[in-house]
């Protein structure tokens, strides 16, 4: 009889940041570059929403802590998964960034729709739009690495 994934003993996962320190260095540089000129609170909302979609517990834990440190309200954090139905709790810039983040994160659905892109382009300067796109792409990269290696919340990057 074949075992299911749920009944198999967990396998040891690569400690990628230890075995490939240049990857960690490059990812940290990408993170710093993509965060330039992006409002810190908006950046955290982007990171949280992508991490929710990607089921990255490590990144969710980290960025929820960071969001609270930066003064993002608990109400926003509670409602970010349902931001479209949250009324005026999120600004138009936040809603545009969250819509764009979701489209970038869910590329398996096809592409970033023109209306989503246009909504973001209407509220961000070219520089800001580029940085919002970069922020969403960067957190998606972090999510995919951490989910693959099953990086646990608050685990040391060893």
Task: Give the topology.
Blueprint: H1 16-19, H2 21-35, H3 40-53, H4 57-69, H5 74-79, H6 92-105, H7 114-123, H8 126-148
Q: What is the CATH T-level topology?
A: AhpD-like
- Percentage of residues in helical conformation: 55-70%
Residue runs with pLDDT of under 50 for 5 or more positions: none
Can you tell me the number of structural domains?
1
SSE string, helices as H and strands as E: HHHHHHHH
Please compute the radius of gyration using only Cα atoms: 17 Å
CATH class: Mainly Alpha
Structural class: mainly alpha
Fourth CATH level, the homologous superfamily: AhpD-like
Number of helices: 8
Largest sheet: none
* Average pLDDT rating: 92
Global morphology: globular
> Which CATH architecture would you pick?
Up-down Bundle
Q: Number of DSSP strands?
A: 0
Strand content: under 5%
Textual characterization of the structure:
Residues 21-102 form the Carboxymuconolactone decarboxylase-like domain. Pfam families: CMD. The protein has eight helices and no strands. Helix 6 (92-105) packs across helix 8. It has one domain (21-148): AhpD-like (Up-down Bundle). The longest helix has 23 residues, at 126-148. It has 158 residues and is mainly alpha-helical.
């Amino acid at each position: 009889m074949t075992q299911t994934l749920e009944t198999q003993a967990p396998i040891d996962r690569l400690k990628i940041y230890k075995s490939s320190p240049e990857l960690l260095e490059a990812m940290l540089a990408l993170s710093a570059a993509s965060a330039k000129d992006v409002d810190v609170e908006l950046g955290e909302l982007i990171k949280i929403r992508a991490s929710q979609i990607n089921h990255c517990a490590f990144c969710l834990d980290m960025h929820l802590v960071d969001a609270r440190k930066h003064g993002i309200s608990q109400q926003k954090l509670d409602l970010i998964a349902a931001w479209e139905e949250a009324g005026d709790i999120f600004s138009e810039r936040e809603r545009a960034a969250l819509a764009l983040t979701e489209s970038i994160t869910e590329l398996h659905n096809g592409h970033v729709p023109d209306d989503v892109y246009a909504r973001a382009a209407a509220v961000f300067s070219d520089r800001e739009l580029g940085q919002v796109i970069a922020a969403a792409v960067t957190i998606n990269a972090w999510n995919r690495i951490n989910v693959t290696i099953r990086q646990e919340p608050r685990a040391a990057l060893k």
